[in-house]
Amino acid sequence: MLSNGLRTAALMAVLIVLFALIGRQLGGEAGLVLAFGIAVAMNFAGYWFSDKIVLKMYRAREVSRREAPELYDMIDRLRQRAGLPMPKVYVIPSEQPNAFATGRNPAHAAVAVTNGIVRLLSREELEGVIAHELAHIKNRDILTSSIAATIAAAITLLARFGLFFGGGRDRDNVIGTLLMLLLAPVAAMLIQLAISRAREYAADRDGARICGKPRALASALNRLQHGAEQVPMDANPATAHMFIVNPFSGAMAGLRNLFSTHPPTEERIRRLLEMERTGF
């Protein structure tokens, strides 16, 4: 399996190749050069600023220990167990119960939780969720996840732009352009799917070890899944893989397991309960 460093480099390479191909299809050699330059700039911005972009996208507000003492102290206590620096703490103004971690490395990380998750979960359940997000930081999933969100959004936007404004005059070029632009969002989705499922299982396992309560995390996942199905969230599809449960769970219905960026919640719960049964 690729390390997160190699996976991140591969994602950046994919962005450059896809942008270059679409740029060439839309504008020939000049379009290729322009798209290549944009892709390089996107990679730079993705590495240094993807966390800030995602947090701003969800209007997340950083909170201090004075503003949210219970939440802050919980994260502080659990991050010490995990051997991590203290991440920044953010609150998202959404009633859907959910959470994610972001940042380029453990020294520059953030944990964001919604208002809904703080209200819904018990203390032990919330500890399980926080431990899961800290596991993502410890496993260095967060840079890969944040860059994937930036790439997926960029590819989709480029494809939409080209679909309305691009295209050539001859029939073959028009067909090629349409195929490229229709396939680009699919490529963005595949990028998300490729990085998400295995790392969620790993974060569940490692998060359960950090908090010491696999059953609490399993209970939290069950409640979060139902909460996401009942309470919609104004989320960007390109960032769905970052959350602990898919924010579009209610909208996906029967296609959830096939196209979801997350593994089935039932299987995640089963594995956590098995961890508790075997003493993890």
Total strand segments: 4
Helix content: 55-70%
Instruction: Using the alpha-carbon principal axes, give the shape.
Output: elongated
Rg over CA atoms = 20 Å
Cα-to-Cα separation, first versus last residue: 23 Å
Number of domains: 1
Strand content: 5-15%
Mean pLDDT: 82
Poorly predicted parts? 253-258
The arrangement of helices and strands along the chain is: HEHEEEHHHHHHHH
Describe the structure.
- This protein is α+β, with helices and mostly antiparallel strands.
- The protein has one domain (4-278).
- 69% of the residues lie in helices and 8% in strands.
- The chain contains ten helices and four strands, in the order H-E-H-E-E-E-H-H-H-H-H-H-H-H.
- The protein has helices spanning 4-57, 69-82, 115-120, 123-138, 142-165, 171-211, 214-230, 249-252, 256-259, 265-278; strands spanning 61-62, 88-92, 99-105, 108-114.
- It has a four-stranded mixed β-sheet with strand order 1-2-4-3, sandwiched between helices.
- Helix 1 (4-57) packs across helix 5, helix 4 (123-138) packs across helix 7 and helix 5 packs antiparallel against helix 6 (171-211).
- The chain is elongated.
- The protein starts with a helix and ends with a helix.
- Residues 253-258 have low confidence and may be disordered.
